[in-house]
Design goal:
The chain has 349 residues and is of the alpha/beta class. The chain is built from 12 helices and 14 strands.
């Protein structure tokens, strides 16, 4: 296939593009390369795929020196005409939309960044897909949409009407927008709710990166909610496997769906939602212990109360993904943490 992957300078997008290239797909990557976190990490991900930094910065198409089927272009999702022109010109078979303004806490202080990238940007993707019949649209949602829900494990069949951050609210909005386009224009859309993704080339604002950096520098780590937290940490390779499995199977709509007993995860329209997680929540203190073992260093812990916009636990019910695609996460927390730290030590020397 010829696939547009947005967010290819990002964590999940960069890994997804490589997986598609390695199986023989043609990929056009798109990213704005904003400065939410260190852009050197973003250019490093692109360089690992053979994309030259100077060309990528220029806004011109950059051809990968490593993968003949990979080109990258710097575009802001908010630029409607640039998005429309790209999708109209390239005639894609499918779109994997992973670009977004990330971060729960950043959304509390910078809400407009999320409206512009996650709402307006997604609208531009939907409209371009509509007018150019690009086939399957797979897009990133988030476990954060579960908000105040305390019914564990989190299921795509649960109600998710109580988000507690603007980031979560924009991701819930994306699901609603996608359903509208699936219903009105029969565009096949699949939303993927990612659960705490980690691994090599991970985001510098995430706990694993922050903890590793601080511990190596001999600085204390901030442990929120006094360590009484659980996360369904999911290794990047397992996430990408789920993305690719879903991409290959556009939804067709469920003729048995009933408006009297509506299931939020599906529709008579070609629309589906799935959780992608490890289905095995890990205590935060056990997560820190895995980092300590891998580094051979003890952390100095600064215990703090819960942060605004945060939740005490996440836990993915992945039964639908297992039943429909044979999804089976395979990387445990100690192995995954060890792989990240080996990458970190090599990358930062």
């Amino acid at each position: 296939m010829k696939v547009l992957v947005t967010g290819t300078a990002g964590f999940i997008g960069s890994h997804t593009a490589l997986r598609l290239l390695e199986r023989g797909d043609e990929v056009v990557g798109l990213d704005s390369i904003n400065n939410y976190y260190d852009v050197n990490i973003k250019y490093g991900r692109l360089a690992a795929a053979g994309i030259d930094r100077e060309t990528a910065e220029s806004g011109r198409f950059a051809q990968s020196s490593r993968y003949p089927g990979y080109r990258f272009i710097r575009i802001y999702l908010e630029n409607r005409h640039a998005v429309e022109d790209l999708i109209a010109r390239e005639n894609f078979d499918a779109v994997v939309h992973l670009a977004a303004q990330a971060g729960v806490r950043y959304s509390i202080t910078n809400p407009y960044a999320y409206i512009e990238a996650n709402i307006i940007g997604f609208q531009n993707i939907l409209e371009a897909c509509r007018h150019n019949r690009t086939g399957h649209l797979v897009y990133a949602s988030s476990s954060s949409v579960y908000g105040l829900n305390e019914n564990y494990p989190f299921s795509v069949h649960h109600n998710v009407d109580h988000p507690i951050s603007m980031y979560a609210a924009t991701k819930k909005s994306n699901e609603l927008m996608a359903h509208t386009y699936s219903h009105l224009y029969r565009i096949p859309t699949t939303g993927l709710r990612f659960f705490t993704v980690y691994g090599p080339w991970g985001r510098p604002d995430m706990a694993l990166f922050l903890f590793t950096k601080a511990m190596l520098e001999g600085k204390p780590i901030d442990v929120f909610n006094n360590g009484n937290m659980k996360r369904d940490f999911t290794y990047i390779d397992d996430i990408v496997t789920g993305v690719v499995k879903v991409l290959d199977h556009p939804p067709e709509g469920d003729p048995a769906w009933s408006g009297k007993t509506p299931d939020p995860s599906r529709s008579p329209a070609p629309y589906r939602l799935y959780n992608i997680g490890n289905n095995s929540p890990v205590n935060l203190m056990d997560f820190i212990d895995a980092i300590e073992k891998s580094l051979g260093k003890k952390a100095v812990k600064n215990f703090l109360p819960m942060q605004d916009g945060d939740v005490p636990a996440t836990w993915a019910d992945v039964d639908d993904l297992v039943n429909d695609f044979g999804y089976s996460p395979s990387v445990g927390i100690e192995d995954g943490v060890d792989r990240f730290i080996k990458w970190y030590l090599d990358y930062f020397k």
